[in-house]
Amino acid sequence: MTARRPVVVGLSGASGAAIGVRVVELLAGAGIAVHLVVSTAAERTLRHEVGPDALPRIAGLAAVVHPVADIGATIASGSFRTGGMIVAPCSIRTLSAIASSAADNLLVRAADVHLKERRRLVLMVRETPLHLGHIRAMAQACEIGAVIAPPVPAFYRRPRTVEDIVEHTARRAIDLLDLQVDGLAGPEWAGDGDRP
Fold first, then answer.
1. Which residues sit in the known binding site for FMN?
2. Percent of the chain having pLDDT more than 90?
3. Does the keyword Flavoprotein apply (predicted)?
4. pLDDT of residue 188
């Protein structure tokens, strides 16, 4: 069953590291084994945006932490079955590498494996404003099977804090994997009467 399979979470160096942290926390809290891969740039962003304890904290929650240079890791093979992969946040560099199948590190290779095996790959592309090269890379990734899910706040939920925005965004990304784990995705929109 998909919900029992591990989920790969990649963090690249774009801003928005707190979303990746929350994705790991939610998946691990739901009993889903997280295979974590963090780029060198993401390590720096985590320290700057979340704090020096962020990486050790999510590494402690993950079932496996894979070094970004380990191209021979389990998640680099299609024979290693997963429930999907989320890259949160996804830098333009990582997006571009995924879109062009330039699997020069484990994060990009794992994403490429998800695409070739027709598994869900959610890319939380974090950049603004966008130029045409960014948009073309997103289109190319979408054409080969990725789900492009920029971390855009859902203001209809009337968030009161940054944490509210991070929470909803992380849950929405997880929901795109269709893991069917009760309570993991958050409440569904039921119309105008559904106010927090």
1. 13-15, 39, 91-94, 126
2. 88
3. yes
4. 77
Please give the CATH superfamily to which domain 21-84+99-175 belongs: Flavin prenyltransferase-like (3.40.50.1950)
**Which residues are part of a known binding site for dimethylallyl phosphate?**
156, 172
What is the pTM assigned to this prediction?
0.94
User: What are the extents of the domains in the chain?
Assistant: 21-84+99-175
DSSP letters for the chain:
-GGGS-EEEEE-SSS-HHHHHHHHHHHHHTTPPEEEEE-HHHHHHHHHHT-TTHHHHHHHHSSEEE-TT-TTSGGGSTTS--S-EEEEEE-HHHHHHHHTT---SHHHHHHHHHHHTT--EEEEE--SS--HHHHHHHHHHHHTT-EE------GGG---SHHHHHHHHHHHHHHTT----TTTS-PPP-STT---
